Amino acid sequence: VQLQASGGGLVQSGGSLRLSCVYSGRTFSFLYMGWFRQAPGKERAFVARINWINTNTYYTDSVKGRFTISKDNAKNTMYLQMNSVRPEDTAIYYCAGARYGSGNRERDYDYWGQGTLVTVSS
Length: 122
What we know:
Elements: E1 2-6, E2 9-12, E3 17-24, E4 32-38, E5 45-51, E6 57-59, E7 67-72, E8 77-82, E9 91-98, E10 109-112, E11 116-121
Parallel strand pairs: 2-11
Antiparallel strand pairs: 1-3, 3-8, 4-5, 4-9, 5-6, 7-8, 9-10, 9-11
């Protein structure tokens, strides 16, 4: 399995950005795909996840109503649409795949992309 995240960049507070994660390989074994982020000086944290089969979604409280996770199997791509971004959303964003667990914890994920940096200016 390979995951390739992209789409990061510099965006003003209140703006929008869409991250993409192209996946390949044995992704049929996934239960979930998710997005995590690591802010400067902080540990990596869960952002959102999508159920591989029924596409149910789940978000951390701080991004609910602002971020949307989705996937397009025809394009082998997962997305994170980020709207109304805030300076505290500044982080390296990672996409990941999980074969087990609830999909809400970092330890559930055993496949990771390389990360893409999002910087939100105030």
